[in-house]
Amino acid sequence: MTASTPAPQSDVQLNPVSERDRHFMRLAQAAAEEARAAGEVPVGAVLVRGDEVIASGFNHPIGAHDPSAHAEMAALRACGSVVDAFANEQLNHHTSVSAGVLADECGEALRAFFADRRRASREARRKAREQAEQAQGGTGVAGPDGPAG
């Protein structure tokens, strides 16, 4: 007979989604809308202590010319990574994590943003192709089917 050891589990307990969580996620969505309006990927973040928002931010790596200027960088640093600082009981501050809050709405906002970007990119390529064709047609250079006109 062999003894089995259960797989290690994170000390972070995922809390059920509450109306409070939804409220703060809506604030993050509003910050994400600011990013979208600035032409950035629509991601926002809020940091909350108790019932108070202590910080918020939105993506702006393009405008800031800073690849690390992501909304979630400060909020997520070490959270759920190889070293999970939030699960370390030796630290004097403890944090709870609620996952999946308004996930469908947030996912749809990102899908719509990137669909719009792809559509705009296709349109820009189409216009550039049309302009190139017009420029070639107006040069008077003979084509393979006959003399220049």
Keywords:
42% helix, 149 residues, elongated, disordered N terminus, single chain, 9% strand, mainly alpha, two-stranded antiparallel sheet
**How many β strands by DSSP?**
2
Largest sheet: 2 strands, antiparallel
Poorly predicted runs:
1-12
Order of helices and strands: HEEHHH
The side-by-side strand order for the widest beta sheet comes to 1-2
Structural class, by secondary structure, is mainly alpha
What percent of residues adopt helix (DSSP H or I)? Answer: 40-55%
Cα distance spanning the termini: 92 Å
Sum up the overall morphology in one term: elongated
**Cα-atom Rg, whole angstroms?**
25 Å
As a percent range, the share of strand residues is 5-15%
Q: What would the average pLDDT be, to the nearest integer?
A: 77
Count of separate DSSP helical elements: 4
Descriptive notes:
By secondary structure, the protein is mainly α. The chain is 42% helix and 9% strand. It contains four helices and two strands; from the N terminus they run H-E-E-H-H-H. It has helices spanning 19-37, 61-64, 73-76, 103-137; strands at residues 44-49, 52-58. It has a two-stranded antiparallel ribbon. Strand 1 (44-49) and strand 2 (52-58) form a beta hairpin. It is elongated, with a radius of gyration of 25 Å.
Task: Outline the fold blueprint.
Blueprint: H1 19-37, E1 44-49, E2 52-58, H2 61-64, H3 73-76, H4 103-137
Antiparallel strand pairs: 1-2
Short recap of the structure:
By secondary structure, the chain is mostly helical. It is built from four helices and two strands.
